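Below is a concrete protein record.
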Amino acid sequence: MNLKFWTIRKKKELKSKTIFQEWRDSIVFAVVVATLIRWSAVEAFVVPTGSMENTIMTGDYLFVSKFHYGSRTPATPLQIPLTHQTIWGTEIPSYLDWIELPTYRFPGISHVKREDVVVFNVPPLSQNKGVKYPMDLKTFYVKRCVAVAGDLFEIRNKQAFANGVPLTNPENMKFEYRLVAKDEINKRNFTGFHISSDDYFFLGRSPENLAVYEMFITKKQFDQIKAAPYVVSIKENDIGTPDPIFGASLNTGWNRDDYGPLVIPATGMKVDINDSTLVLYGEIIKDYEHNSNVNIQQGKLQIDGVPVTTYTFKQNYYFMMGDNRHNSIDSRYWGFVPEDHVVGKPLFVWMSVDSNAELLDKIRWRRIFTVIE
């Protein structure tokens, strides 16, 4: 009889990875880590418009904290990592809306306060290129919070008030002016006043053959350019026809400079349902309160087929405005920002590029590491 003894098998030698495998693993690891950091802690944004000038400039690159107000769980899991809305450099959607999850917010170290600068997903369809994006893929906006949940908000002659108390005006807040000059002004003159080409527009000639400009400038810039020898006159621009103001159908006197009073909805706040309240709150009850089968007709509200005479709000809302007060499409035009649309708090500028400047002046060195306040 032959006996077989146990033998120790030789361990298979580990094969070394190819360069391709090493690069693949490194890229996958980097993408996973970057995605987690971007979702939970800090995300980089670039600012494409001047609605927050001069606090935030067009071409500023911002680091935005997610942990200040608490990071949100993703609503759209089927998305290419490190993209937003579309694949880089194309119009091809970077996500599939087959699955949309309810979102939850982790505890933050702070909460949105009046006068905070906030990054958020802008709510209405009109500000999202007419595309019905999932909530977390809506277009990012950055504005200043001028009223929080439960506040009574009002603007009187360009001064914002919350609960009757005037808000602190940002140091470099801008307004719109009409300038008349003896002749067309050289770009060098505007540059000397630190007025970028995005902030002035040549409107043409007056009947007296004078050059007419529309400008968005600070009070300091106004005082400087007013003294220039080639300036005939400069004054605040008349609004002219009424703006398409949110809630203006309640009061035809509301405009961008005189607005409200308006109560900002808060969790647990009750409102009676009538024509007036539905003008202000009907859209958020229908679109942002996570109700199903909402029907609004002739001043009446139905939810799941049941008539509703009073409504209790399920989340907080905020009112946001740009510091470039006459060149900002903000809550005055499209309404409230729901709490679940809040993304984070801008911390500082890590790079700033002026696309209209000459080659050597494109980087705004003085803005790098500027803290956002």
Q: What stands out?
A: Residues 156 and 272 are 27 Å apart (CA to CA). Confidence is low (pLDDT under 50) at residues 1-8.
